[in-house]
Design a protein that fits this description.
seven-stranded antiparallel β-sheet, disordered C terminus, single chain, alpha+beta, six-stranded antiparallel β-sheet, binds iron/sulfur cluster, globular
């Protein structure tokens, strides 16, 4: 529960309510980024855009939406993973260049962004943001390729790492997914309109039909001549982010062709088999621990009760500004239900322990509420390595499991026992496609070479608020 989400993207082609539907799509994807939001639309001649810092619902009103005219649109919700936060790095990023206007929305992280940026700066480029996404636009603008489509393929081919992109030109919606398929990107239809978005829950909200996932390495284009797909990149081994199933994606979504709820519940079942606990009640750490706790309860035969209640109205602004305020963060977000916890042996089910400080506060809170024993179970293996593919982890030295034994972590968080799901248990939950998943943050084996200067990269790219 301590990871920050990365980004959510949405795009629609050929609908008279393009801006409105994008607003709704982003609303459904809000869990993927709460820091900033933006929508760009095209009326066939010109692009227009509105971006703001804050939640989707607070950032658009009727007049703003009605100014975003046109039959196609792209939108983005962001929590900064690369680059500084704030309006400067909010997306879409919109430029006008020799190939015409283009707006880009990116979910993921490029591992060679710094090298590309250094090269571009040496050759005279001036950057407006610190986001790695802008690198792609500079490459696009410099391309001598004869068509915008070829220029896009040429520029994206130079990027390494994770990218699920939606782009808007004056007359086309384009979706691109990196050859490894790190981050999800899916395709839907609403009447005759095409939609691309991070998760299927965005399709559900607008009553659109799911068609298929955009394939790893695919460039999908919707334009005046219909749709087409090209596969211009060299094939690469698949590396879907397994953490989408563990934590990021909404349980009502399908990602990488699988129900998140089903995978997450299965993680809990397997956790119960691998790490039983001598307790009276299973208590999820909400919201992300709920599905796994359901599976744990099902497989163990123990009752599950909501012994911790989450306040859904806590914004980042409350916990961010000062250390003195952040101190109260967990209390403000979660409150124990004493009537459930008092005098009982409790197993808490969560999806991760990052630094251990949040888990420590929660265990203490549950004990103070009267629990006689507090056991902690985690629905994935220990997080021992940072992510370089768009997920917000701290540097290795700050990951408690990278530097401490199981016993030491258990002692630090103050639990009576601690158990993690094994890597095999995690991969078994996704079934026969286990080889298609990235598990680098649990293994330290990276499918795409990571930057040599890890410290500098993480300083640029990754932050975590626990
Ligand atoms: S390193 Fe972990 S969080 Fe990052 S893409 Fe791989 S599985 Fe996902």
């Amino acid at each position: 529960m301590a990871f920050k989400d990365e980004c959510g993207v949405f795009g629609i082609y050929g609908h008279s309510e393009a801006a409105n539907l994008t607003y709704l799509g982003l609303y459904a994807l809000q869990h993927r980024g709460q820091e900033s939001v933006g929508i760009a639309t095209s009326d066939g001649v010109k692009l227009q855009m509105h971006k703001a810092v804050g939640y989707v619902a607070d950032s658009f009103d009727e007049p703003t939406i009605s100014r975003l005219t046109g039959m196609s649109a792209v939108g983005h919700v962001r929590y900064s993973t690369a680059g500084e936060s704030g309006i400067k790095n909010a997306q879409p990023i919109l430029i006008d260049c020799a190939h015409g206007e283009i707006a880009i929305c990116h979910n993921g992280n490029l591992v060679n962004a710094q090298e590309l940026r250094d090269m571009l700066v040496r050759e005279g480029s001036i950057f407006q943001t610190t986001s790695d996404t802008e690198v792609l636009l500079h490459l696009y603008a410099r391309s001598k390729a004869p068509t915008p489509e070829q220029a896009l393929v040429e520029s994206v081919s130079q990027a390494q790492g994770a990218f699920s992109l939606v782009l808007l030109t004056k007359d086309r919606l384009i979706a691109v997914r990196d050859p490894h398929g790190f981050r999800p990107l899916t395709l839907g239809k609403l009447g005759d309109s095409y939609i691309v978005c991070s998760e299927t829950c965005a399709l559900d909200l607008i009553d659109a039909e799911w068609i298929r996932d955009i394939e790893p390495g695919e460039v999908f284009i919707a334009g005046p001549d219909g749709t087409k797909s090209i596969h211009p990149f060299a094939p690469a081994p698949r590396a879907h982010c397994i953490f989408e199933h563990v934590y990021f994606a909404r349980p009502d979504s399908y990602v990488f062709g699988k129900s998140v709820n089903e995978v997450r519940t299965e993680l809990g079942r397997r956790l119960a088999h691998e790490q039983p606990a001598p307790v009276d009640v299973v208590v999820p750490i909400p919201d992300s621990g709920v599905c796994a706790a359901t599976g744990y309860s099902e497989a163990s035969g123990l009752p599950m009760q909501m012994g911790l209640i989450r306040n859904h109205y806590v914004g980042r602004t409350f916990i961010e500004p000062h250390q003195s305020i952040r101190h109260f963060g967990v209390r403000v977000k979660l409150n124990p239900v004493k009537s459930i916890l008092q005098g009982r042996r409790v197993v808490l089910v969560d999806d991760s322990i990052v630094r251990g400080t949040t888990s420590r506060k929660i265990v203490k809170m549950v004990r103070n509420a009267g629990a006689s024993e507090v056991h902690m179970r985690i629905s994935c293996p220990p997080t021992i390595s940072p992510c370089f593919y768009g997920v917000d982890t701290p540097k290795r030295s700050e990951l408690i499991a990278a530097t401490h034994s199981l016993e030491e972590i258990c002692r630090f968080i103050g639990a009576d026992s601690l158990g993690y799901l094994s890597l095999d248990g995690l991969l078994s939950a996704v079934g026969s496609e286990r080889k298609s998943y990235c598990t680098s943050c649990y293994t330290g084996d990276y499918p795409v070479a990571v930057p040599q200067n890890e410290a500098a990269y993480l300083q640029l790219a990754l932050k975590l608020v626990e």
